[in-house]
Specification:
By secondary structure, this protein is an alpha+beta fold. Helices cover about 30% and strands about 20% of the residues. The two termini are about 30 Å apart.
Length: about 375
């Protein structure tokens, strides 16, 4: 393959770079099985939107398996609300297909325009509506997996944890059956808050409403950059009609779309300010004020899915010592070092020793030839 084209596959959205031996583009499951059976080291790639180097090849020895040409949607069942898809299907394209039937796949990461279903399964993607719909794995009925010998197996709900969220170190997910949800009538409200104490109290109350599907948080610095004023801001999404007696302004239509676009703008705005290290710790709501306060004290802008405790502090490349300091704080708060992006290469040093042992055992059991995504996660 052309060396200049190979270089495109030697990095992901994190900017982390490696070196590939080759890149291959299977068009169907039979080709995947053949390639896997005859290749010593494999890195599977979806949309390349990962932020931890999870699909970056290493040491010039890895063959990148690009599944983008495996993009068929089939097996749609309107009554059961399920659809079967190949791993290379892009989320927004799937939503366009399902929208004709009043259905959707309800997990929505910010990379929805380029994220593939295979990549979402590999990282067990969460997204902005996690408060109501949870993770990708909550919406997967089964997956078809190619193992290290090039054999194809179907894995049901009891075995999904060996592949969902394992970042491609256990096998190649080539197809999946997804559960679907009816498209809901949605409205949104922008709430400006002066104090962290008020933020925590408001979020706690909002979570008691089963129809709240999104609570996105922006700190004062991020809010100012988004031209929302120097205040804490929340974008709240609700499904169905607004509550009687609720004095918030709930918008629909074009104004709703404008609010939703604010969330998608955050990443590019912060990247434009050279804040290129993108973390995703997860902490309990009642402890999140400590994480936010630490970020403010260090001058680190932060936003995120506060309803489920996933935050996105953004750092400059010369602030890696601050990243380590933040990870120690997250562990002291009883949190997780990654709420949705995964471990990949860039977070390996922060993985707890006991968690690492569990991951190593799963890797040995599922990939006895030690073939898939070496140097990642463990």
């Amino acid at each position: 393959m052309n060396k200049n084209l190979i270089k495109v596959y030697e990095r992901d959205a994190s900017g982390f770079e490696g070196r590939a031996l080759d890149v291959v583009f299977p068009r169907n499951v039979v080709e995947v099985c053949r390639i896997v059976a005859n290749t010593k080291r494999i890195v599977v790639r979806g949309g390349g939107s990962g932020l931890v180097g999870g699909c970056v090849p290493q040491n010039g020895l890895d063959v990148v398996l690009d599944l983008s040409k495996m993009d068929k949607i089939y097996g749609f069942d309107n009554e059961r609300k399920t659809v079967e898809v190949e791993a290379g299907v892009i989320l927004d394209e799937l939503q366009g297909y399902l929208g004709r039937f009043g259905l959707e796949f309800p997990v929505k990461p910010s990379s929805h325009a380029i994220a593939t279903i295979g990549g979402m399964i590999a990282t067990d993607a969460v997204g902005s509506r996690a408060i109501k719909y949870g993770k990708t794995s909550n919406w997967v009925k089964w997956v078809d997996v190619v193992d290290c010998y090039g054999e194809l197996y179907r894995k049901g709900i009891t075995e999904l944890s060996d592949y969902c969220g394992m970042e491609g170190i256990t096998g190649v997910v080539v197809r999946a059956c997804l559960k679907l949800s009816s498209v809901k009538k949605r409205s949104a409200s922008l709430v400006r808050v002066e104090s962290l104490e008020e933020v925590i109290g408001l979020v706690r109350n909002l979570k008691m409403d089963a129809n709240i599907s999104m609570i996105e948080f922006f700190d004062k610095q991020v809010s100012e950059w988004l031209e929302l004023g120097k205040v804490y801001s929340l974008i709240v999404e609700r499904e169905g009609e607004s509550l009687e007696g609720d004095n918030r302004e709930w918008v629909v239509g074009a104004e709703y779309d404008r609010l939703m676009s604010l969330r998608d703008r955050v990443g590019p705005v912060l990247s434009g300010k050279e804040l290129l290290i993108y973390e995703d710790p997860k902490v309990l709501l009642d402890r999140s004020d400590k994480l936010i306060a630490w970020c403010e004290a260090k001058g680190v802008p932060v936003f995120g899915h506060i309803g489920v405790g996933i935050f996105h502090p953004r750092f400059r490349k010369d602030q890696k010592e601050l990243v380590s300091e933040m990870m120690k704080l997250v562990k002291r708060l009883g949190g997780q070092i990654s709420g949705e992006h995964g471990i990949g290469v860039l977070k390996k040093e922060f993985v707890d020793a006991n968690d690492k042992k569990i991951l190593i055992n799963v890797k040995k059991r599922t990939d006895s030839l030690n073939k898939f995504n070496l140097g990642k996660v463990i």
